[in-house]
Amino acid sequence: MALIVAKFGGTSVASPERIKNVAKRLAAMREQGDRVVAVVSAMGKTTDELMGLANAVSSNPPARELDRLLSTGEHVSMTLLALALDAMGVPAISFTGRQAGIETNGTHNKARIVKVHNERILEALAAGLLPVVAGFQGIDANGDITTLGRGGSDTTAVAVAWGIGADACEIYSDVDGVYTTDPRVAPRARKLSQISYDDMLELSSAGSGVLQSRAVEFAKKWGVVIHSRSAFSDALGTYIKEEPQMEEAVITGIAHDTSEVKVTVRHVPDAVGVAAKVFTALAARAVNMDMIIQNTSLDGATDISFTCPASDLPRAQEALETIVPQIGAESVDVEEDVAKISLVGTGMKSSPGVSAKAFDTLGANNINIIAISTSPIRLSMVIDAAEAQRAVQLLHTAFDLDSESVFEETQLSAEEIAAKMQKGR
Ligand code: ADP
Ligand code: ASP
Ligand code: MG
Fold first, then answer.
1. Nearest-CA neighbor of 112 among 152, 72, 170?
2. 44 Cβ inside 6 Å of ligand 1
3. Which of 239, 270, 341, 383 is the most buried (most CB within 10 A)?
């Protein structure tokens, strides 16, 4: 008899019918003799809709109020799932983040879990109930509701699994596992049977939406094995765990991220301490810079560019408005239509030539690389967003990741793919 945490994402609970299907699946797990705790996301696009409502009444909604509002999405889905289970004869009890004991720090909108109090969930299980936990939310030391960042229900699931010592943490979504790249963007993507925490962490951080990077970080730290699988089939998915693979590929996967923008400060005087002034001003406004590029100086002046999340752009612009005249720079340009493509693989450490091959592939296909950054297990390139899908597909083929079969499940139209590639915005 196993103790299982089963997390269902927005698509899996998008309608009453789907919620009933999830309830059936949970009931079947119990019938097999397992004890189950469910974690749910908000229904469908609810979180986006709530965010839209907040933006409709305020251009700068305070983070505390936003968290209060966003948390209501999961309140609806957790209650509906508990009702559906109850109607099926499975006694269930829903818990908010607070009731489930998810204690976080006070960083609203991207809070970190500091403690998991497992008592209520364990009591409910002991009483024969099926606990249904609202994902994505917690409570801080002041008793205020916090949220864990977009996609944060994955992190709730891993934290609950660790907190109650579950045997398995199953994350159900609309794909049947982790692929070498987003299979809706490159239908030749191949499903991985397992992936290491480090590779998964890099893929998630580089924009692979399939698992929240915080969830992978938490799982790695506490040794929780994640099973990413489909909410709509029984097929085995992908295990995210530490065990090394027999044969390590050079590149494990490719991620793309269209949520960043590129900002260029033009004609910055080439003098000691000037770059420090620019980046200190940006840091003071908590702008999360990713890549930084300084061009060679011409006539005593140079251009400095950096990328940052689009959501940080207003703060970056505020900071630069003050600093640009102070340092005697000329102007600020913003390029919003950029995409970051990242090749990830622990095998890259011992394989020289990855960058050369990637640059060659894009160059031979007339795709211009705007910026580059590397880590021992990741190579990221910023390109024009319009070329993102083509670049992912070309690199996927060049690095021998293509599968024989084509991913067929709900192939998207060109418009839908374009919209999906804009998802991070
Ligand atoms: P949920 O709403 O259940 O949390 P998400 O939308 O967050 O599900 O994650 C699933 C989506 O992640 C898939 O629809 C797929 O398009 C996307 N995705 C991105 N990269 C990958 C990848 N490498 N493998 C599988 N899916 C991926
Ligand atoms: N509902 C939240 C979101 O859309 C959390 C989640 O789905 O994991 O980001
Ligand atoms: Mg998700």
1. 152
2. no
3. 341
pLDDT above 70 for 422: no
pTM for this entry: 0.92
What values do phi and psi take at 381, rounded to 5? -130, 135
Q: What number is the average pLDDT over the span 33-53? A: 97
Q: pLDDT exceeding 90 applies to what percent of the chain?
A: 85
Strand ranges, E, within 29-142: 35-40, 92-95, 102-104, 113-116, 130-134, 137-139
Q: Is the CB of 151 under 6 A from ligand 2?
A: yes
Residue 225 DSSP class: P
- 424 close to ligand 2 (CB < 6 Angstrom): no
How are beta strands 145-147 and 113-116 bridged, if at all?
unpaired
Cβ-based burial of 410 (10 A; exposed 0-12, middle 13-18, buried ≥19) = exposed
Which is it for strands 238-240 and 102-104: parallel, antiparallel or unpaired? Answer: unpaired
Q: Residue 325: enclosing H or E segment and its boundaries?
A: helix 313-327
**Tokens 């309830």 — which residue?**
23
Which ligand is nearest to the Cα of residue 47, counting in written order?
2
